[in-house]
Amino acid sequence: MPKNLTLRRARADDLSAIINMLADDALGASREVVADLVHGDYVEAFAAIDTDPNQYLAVAEDGEGIVGCLQLSFIPGLSRRGMWRGQIESVRIHSRARGEGYGQVLFEWAIEQCRRKGCGLVQLTTDKSRPDALRFYERLGFVPSYEGMKLGL
């Protein structure tokens, strides 16, 4: 584990740091709102995540502040004999900390949380415009086993 790294549940006062990480690339910059005052939509979303027992918004901190985040969702299902799935989303590592092993630690932690919950698999989506992220996920053992699709509403 990288030195001085702590993983914990995100708090409302972490929102600004999380949003800044989400916006810290070309794709995120086009869809996130970075401002001195956190937009109300983020506050509402955080409250919904924070009160849902099947959601966990995690942050990773080092001695200098928040260096990573991800959202872990536990999804019950009927297929595969009622198997639970873990869904990992909104993964970001602060630009100052990329390449230091923080992402791997975050994923190992998230996968272990899924095991503890009794999930039979862990899944994620990644944008096709992020080839480095795809290579990272494949190094962790994730397999591009299906084609995902979206419909904007």
Q: Can you give a write-up of this model?
A:
The protein contains six helices and five strands; from the N terminus they run βαααββαβαβα. The chain has 153 residues and is an alpha+beta fold. Strand 4, helix 5 (102-117) and strand 5 (119-124) form a beta-alpha-beta unit. The N and C termini lie far apart (40 Å).
Task: List the SSEs and their pairings.
Layout: E1 6-9, H1 15-22, H2 26-29, H3 40-51, E2 55-62, E3 65-75, H4 79-82, E4 84-93, H5 102-117, E5 119-124, H6 131-139
Parallel strand pairs: 4-5
Antiparallel strand pairs: 1-2, 2-3, 3-4
Radius of gyration computed on alpha carbons:
16 Å
Largest sheet: 5 strands, mixed
The secondary structure category is alpha+beta
Proportion in helices:
25-40%
Number of helices: 6
How far apart lie the N and C ends?
Answer: 40 Å
Low-confidence stretches: none
Using the alpha-carbon principal axes, give the shape.
globular
In short:
With 153 residues, the chain is an alpha+beta fold. It has helices spanning 15-22, 26-29, 40-51, 79-82, 102-117, 131-139; strands at residues 6-9, 55-62, 65-75, 84-93, 119-124. A five-stranded mixed sheet has the order 1-2-3-4-5, sandwiched between helices.
